[in-house]
Structures are given as structure tokens and as C-alpha cells.
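Protein: Putative 3-methyladenine DNA glycosylase
Species: Streptomyces doudnae
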Amino acid sequence: MIAPPDRTPLPREFFDRPVLEVAPDLLGRVLLRTTPDGPITLRITEVEAYDGPNDPGSHAYRGRTPRNDVMFGPPGHVYVYFTYGMWFCMNLVCGPEGTSSAVLLRAGEITEGAELARGRRLSARNDRELAKGPARLATALGVDRALNGTDACGTADSPLRMLTGTPVPSDQVSSGPRTGVSGAGGVHPWRFWSVNDPTVSPYRAHTPRRRPS
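Structure follows.
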């Protein structure tokens, strides 16, 4: 029987560190999503680090734009982007303000509010698949661009808050290449996951998208 997660909010100082320190330390932490229909909690099991101007795979590699502006702001805020014209993905900004690094939340276990997540993820075959992948995770939690810039270290009425949870021991954390990242950024082993957790998404190498003929 798993003990209830620690509901203490994570302080902003947790995120005000280098992205490669924050990313593996997020495993086992809990994201609380508050909705009008009730709360949903997610235990984080898989993440990817993106290191701003030092990382060709980062949205901020070429500088500040209206799309990535939140990444340059204070740590602990949520960066949400739209991808493939279909899906939203969510990140947590970290490092000192202006450094534009962030951690993509790739997968997790819904520990509370699964019935709400199921209503959004009708194609999930079981609860392990509710948040198995970054787009599925955002969908299950009802996260879209309206939540871009949310302070996850904010007050109790924030729609997204990061809680302490139960950190995964370092010997139970594995790392490898990031999923779907091409070019120079594809070689970084900056994907971190909880070993043997069934909610972790499968690794997929980058496959170039082809335009319809």
C-alpha cells in the first residue's frame, strides 16, 4: 500500500537550480490540478530537460519569442505549447530568471481524480495509459494554452501546484536520449524516468515528418 503523497507545496527555490538537477528530482513529485469538477493529482514518473540557449533541442535555443516567452520568466511557472497542430504539452520553468530552461512532463500516474481524467482520455485502455506521454498527460489534466504562465508555486487557489510528493531514490532513476529530438540535441541523455514504472512512455527516436504528396 503506497502512503499518501506529501501535500507540502514545493518552494520556488526547488526550481531555481540548473535544469539537470531539477529534472530527475521531479520524479515522484506530485502535480495538483484543480478544476471546477474536482481535483486531479499526478505522480510524475518521466521527464525531459531542455537547457535553453545551450540546447539545440530547446524552443528557446534561438532566443526569445512570443511563443516561448514564459521560459525566460521566473522559475516554477508553467510553459504550455501546442504541437503538431493537435496537442498541448506542459513544462516547468527552472533556473534563474532569464536562463530559459524547462522540464517537460512526459508521463505520470493519476493518483486522484482518475474518473475526471478518463472522461478526457476516452481512448486510454487502462488507467496506466491516462498520462503516458506528454500530450496524453496534458489532455488528462485539462491543460491548454490558457494555463501558460501559471505559477505552480503560487497560492492555494492556483489551478496548477507542485507538491513535495515522495522523491524517487537516485538508484531507481534511469536516463537516456530524449524522445523524438533530432540533430545535435538528440544525443543528450536528458530524459529521466522511474525504473520499471508502468506509466513511463516508450522511447521513440526522431522520425522526420513527410509532407503529403
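Remarks: Residues 134-141 form the longest helix (8 residues).
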